[in-house]
Design a protein that fits this description.
Chains A, B: This is PLP-dependent aminotransferase family protein. Two copies of one chain form a homodimer. Helix content of chain A is about 40%, strand content about 15%. By secondary structure, the first copy, chain A, is of the alpha/beta class. Chain A has three domains: about 60 residues, Winged helix-like DNA-binding domain superfamily/Winged helix DNA-binding domain (Arc Repressor Mutant, subunit A); about 250 residues, Type I PLP-dependent aspartate aminotransferase-like (Major domain) (Aspartate Aminotransferase, domain 2), CATH 3.40.640.10; about 120 residues, Aspartate Aminotransferase, domain 1, CATH 3.90.1150.10. In chain A, the strands form four sheets. Chain A has an eight-stranded mixed β-sheet with strand order 4-11-10-9-8-5-6-7, sandwiched between helices. Chain A has a four-stranded antiparallel β-sheet with strand order 12-13-16-15. In chain A, helix 7 packs across helix 11. The first copy, chain A, is globular, with a radius of gyration of 23 Å. In chain A, about 55% of the residues are buried. At the A-B interface, helix 4, helix 5, helix 7, helix 8 and helix 11 of A face helix 4, helix 5, helix 7, helix 8 and helix 11 of B.
Chain lengths: ~475, ~475
Amino acid sequence: MTATHPSLPLYQQVAGHYRQAIAAGTLAVGDRMPSVRSLMGLHEVSLSTALQACRELETAGLLEARPRSGYFVRAPSRPALAPIEEPAAGLPDPAQYVGIHQRISAILARSQHRDIKINLGGACGAPSLYPTAALRTATARALRRYPDLFGSAAEADGHPSLRAALARHALRSRIQLAPEDVVVTHGCTEALNLALRAVAQPGDVIAVESPTYYGLLQILESLGMRALEIPCSPQTGISLEALELAAQTYDNIKAVAVVPNLQNPLGCVMPDARKQRLVAWCEARGIALIEDDSCASTYEGETPLAAAKTWDTTGNVIHCASLHKVLAPGMRLGWIAAGKWQARVEMLKFGLSRPNEMLAQIAVADFMGTGAFERHLRRLREQLRNQREWMAQAVAGSFPAGTRLTLPRGGLHLWIELPAGMSSETVFEQVLAHGIRVMPGSMFSNSNRFDHYLRLNCGNPREPAIERALETVAGVVRRLAP
Amino acid sequence: MTATHPSLPLYQQVAGHYRQAIAAGTLAVGDRMPSVRSLMGLHEVSLSTALQACRELETAGLLEARPRSGYFVRAPSRPALAPIEEPAAGLPDPAQYVGIHQRISAILARSQHRDIKINLGGACGAPSLYPTAALRTATARALRRYPDLFGSAAEADGHPSLRAALARHALRSRIQLAPEDVVVTHGCTEALNLALRAVAQPGDVIAVESPTYYGLLQILESLGMRALEIPCSPQTGISLEALELAAQTYDNIKAVAVVPNLQNPLGCVMPDARKQRLVAWCEARGIALIEDDSCASTYEGETPLAAAKTWDTTGNVIHCASLHKVLAPGMRLGWIAAGKWQARVEMLKFGLSRPNEMLAQIAVADFMGTGAFERHLRRLREQLRNQREWMAQAVAGSFPAGTRLTLPRGGLHLWIELPAGMSSETVFEQVLAHGIRVMPGSMFSNSNRFDHYLRLNCGNPREPAIERALETVAGVVRRLAP
C-alpha cells in the first residue's frame, strides 16, 4: 500500500495501510491498534505522522481513542443505520407527468435569494478539494502561449488538446474514443440537453431513474419531454425488469437517461453485468441510452468503474460527463460522445451556444497531461471517502430513530431516508432560516415518493462550522420527527 | 475633431478632419488636398504623421496621389455600384418552411473541414482589432484576485460586476437596465435560444427579416419553430407593412426576431421612428419582440444607435447582444435582458447550461470599467470603417458589371448582389478550393431569393494576402458571370 500511493501524504499512506487491515478483518472490532510508538518504528515515520494517521482513522470512525490505553478498532458506523428502502416493484403512478420545473425552480430560487452560510445542498466540493493553484498556473501559461486567444473565434467542437485529453481520460472508464468523437460542452447540463434533443422530440417519453437528478427533470420539462420514472435500487441501480414492463406499457420511449456509476442522489453503482444488459436491451429495443458519468473518478474502489458505453458496439450509447465535480467547479467544462448521433450533436451545439471559449480548455488539457491530474484524483477520492464516512457517522449519531442511510462508495452526497411521514421540504425551509441549504428529496422525483428523503453534500472537509450546521439540521429533523 | 478624439492616433485625427471636410463638400472631388508640408504646419505634426494621414485617406478611397502634384480628392467609390435591390412588396412564398438547417450545416461543415487560409466568411474581426493584451492583463489580475475561482461554483445569472458593467453599457443604447435585469449567456446565440424558448413553442411561427442571419434560421429549425420571412429593406430594415399583412395571414406568430441596428447581412439601420412603430405594433398585437443588438457599437455615426428596447414600456422587448464582435471573439460573452420573461429565462438558462464560468466575466467587467473600453470602441469603429470602404472600393473595381452594393455605416460585412442568375454557392465552392471562405447568400433565407448574393467579412485590415484573396474571389465571380 505504502509503495503503491507514493504521492499521498505519509500519514495517509499509513492510515490507508490500517484501513485495509480493518476492512480485511485482520484487525477486528475491539482489537487494539498498534501503539503510536510502534507505528513510528514499523513505518519509520515521525511521532506527529503516526498520530495524524490514528486521528485520520478516528475521524473516519474506524478507531476510537480510549483514555490511557490507546486506539481501538471500533464497530463501523454503517450498521448504525439500516440501508435505505428498496423500491416497490412495478411502475410508479402517473404522477410522473406532473411538472416539477416550477417546484424545483421555486426551491432553487428560495435558496438563491437567501444568504446561505453553509451549503449542504450543493453538487460539488469545497474549493480546498480542487487543484486551483495548478489550474491558475496552467491558465496563466495558456495566456502567454496563445496571446491572440481572446481575439480569435473558438475552434469548433472544442480545443484539440482537450478533446485528446478527454479521449485519453475515457480509457480509465474502458471507453475507446478518438478525439473527434468528443464535443466539449458547457458542463454536463449542456451535454444532456444536446443528447436529449438529438434523440427525442417534444412529447416523447424518456425513462429515468427514480429518484433522479432534479436537473434532468428540469431539462426534460423545459424541452417538453416527459419523464417516466423507473424504480432504482440503492444497491444495483435502475430496475431492468421495471424498464421492460415500461417498454411494454409505453410505445414512445425514445431514450433511457441514467447515471450507472454513483447515481445521483442514491450513490449506487450498477454491476457491470447489469450495465451490459441495459446496453443490449436499449440496442435491441431501438431506444437510445444516455449516461451521465460525471462522478466515476470519485469511486473509492481499487478498480476504476466502467462506463455503460464500454459495451456499446453500435453507437447507441451517448456518453455525457463533466469535470465540474472532480476537477474544477468553476470552469464549467463538460463533454459528450454521441455515437451515431455525433454529427447531429455537433450541429445542435453550434446552434445552441457555438464552441466553448478556449482558455479553460487549454489550461485543463495542459493539467490533465501531467501526473498531477491522477495525483489530484487520488487525493480527492481519499478526502471524499473520509468526509462521507464522518458525515454518515454524525448522521447516525444525531438523527432520530428510523433514519436510514446507505453509505455510497463514491460521490459527494449522502441520500438520507427520514422517518416515514416527515416532510423534507419543511426541513429545507427551517434550516434555510439558519442560513443552511440542504436538498429536499421532493426535488428528485415528479411523485411524492421521496418527500421524506434528504440529500446532504459531503464536499466540505470536517470543520467546526460544518459540524455545527449538521447538528442544526439534525436538531430540526429531531424536532419534526413523529 | 482633433479635440474630440484625443485618444485616436494623431494621424487618424488629422485624417478624420479632412474626411469630414470631404463629406461636407468643403473639399470637392478634384480639389487639391493641402500639401504634406502645409499639413505639418496646420496641425503641428511630423512629416510621417502628415503622410500617414494622407495614405489613410487614400486607402479609404477618398484621395488619389498624382505623381509630382500631390493628393487630390477623388470621386467616392459608392456611386461606382448601384445600391442593392429593394425587396418586392407582399409576402414571400411558402418556401419559408423548407428546412435550411441541413443546408447551412453542410456549408459550414464543408468549410470547417477544409484548410481555410483566408476567412472572408467569418462574423468577427482579425485579432489585431481587439484589445487582447489588456484583456490578458485583466484576466491575470482576476486570477490573482480570486484564487479560489476555479474551485467555486459560478454565480447564478452572471458575475455581479459584469451584469453591472453591461447595464451601464446599455445606457449607450438608451436602455435603462438594473444589473439584475441582465443574464450573462454564452454569446448571443445562447441568448437567442433562451429568448425564443421563453416566448414560443415548437410549431409556432417566428417572423424574421429576409434576408436574415443564418444562425437564427438554424436555431429556429433546431427548436422546431417556423421562420416566416418578412421583406427587409437595405435602407430601412424590416417592412412593417409586410409584417401587418403577415399578422393578418398567420394567427400563430409568437415573436418578431430582428436586428434593428446594422442588420446581418444587409447592414441597414432602422430609423428610430420605425423602431418605435415596431415596438408599439408588437405590443398591440401581443407578439414578443426579440432584438439582437450585437453590432451597434461599430456604428460610424456621431450619435450612438438606440436599441428597440429604448421604447419598451411593458417588458415586451427581449434585448439580446454579445461582446463577440466588438470586444473579444474568443470569450463568447453575451447577455439577455428579457423584460417580462426574465424569471423564465433565468430558469431556462439554469436548465440549459448553468451560469457562465466567472473568469472571463470578471476580466471583461474590469476592462469595461476603464476608459480603455471606450477608446477601444472608437478605434474599432475607425478601423472597420476604413476596411469597409477599401473593400467596397475593391469590389467596385474588380467585380463584374451588374454587381450591386449598399455600403453600410457599421458592422463587419458587405452584402453584395451579384449579377442576376449567378449562384453564390458555386462561387463559395470555387473559392473554397483556393482556401478562401465566403458566405453564400443562400444561407440567409429559406427561399432561393438570395442565391446570387454574397456576404464578405471586412474584419481584416488591408493586407496583401487579403487583397489577393479578394482578387481571387473577384476573378471567380467574373468567370462565372453571365
